[in-house]
Amino acid sequence: MGYAAHNALADADLSVSAYKLFHKMCALQNRKDHGLVLIESQAKFAEQVGMSQASVSRSLKQLAAHGFIYPDGRNWRIRADFVFNGGGAAQGQAVQSIPADTPDPYAGARADLKVVEGGDEKRDGDDRS
Asked: How confident is the model at residue 6 (pLDDT cuts 50, 70, 90)?
């Protein structure tokens, strides 16, 4: 997952259950099929990830509403730019296959955060190494 993807996930207003489910989905996804998470049934999927069916249902809706995942038939697919590390033709094709109506997870910049210049510079009298 790239830097922008990490920031988008960190900045999203997701429940703890949604974060947990997203990370479990990342572990379960089919890398050869660019983020496909196979769902036999929601009840079995909930059991597989160790969550209640209601929590899984709410979390899937949250993740989809923020654009981190999208439905692929009865399965779910994690955005290709979240599961690929790097670039290349395969990633480009996978990103282009994201449905046009999928929300953009990179669009929601948090208004309560601001960039502070020079945060890593050592100041006079500062003993930090």
From this structure: confident
Distance from C-alpha of 89 to C-alpha of 66, rounded to nearest angstrom: 26
Q: How far is CA 124 from CA 71, 118, 121, 127, in A?
A: 54, 13, 10, 9
Angle at 125 between CA 119 and CA 126, to 5 degrees: 40
For 78, phi then psi, to 5°, come to -80, 140
pLDDT bracket for residue 81 (50, 70, 90): confident
Query: Collapsing DSSP states into helix, strand and coil, what is residue 31?
Result: helix
* Partners of 70 in the β-ladder: 77
DSSP 122: P
Q: Which two tokens mark 40?
A: 């036999």
In the sheet with 69-72, reading across from the earlier edge strand, the strands are 36-37, 75-78, 69-72
Residue in the block written with tokens 């990103």: 95
Give CA–CA dist 18/98, Å, rounded: 20
Residue 75, classed as helix, strand or coil, is strand
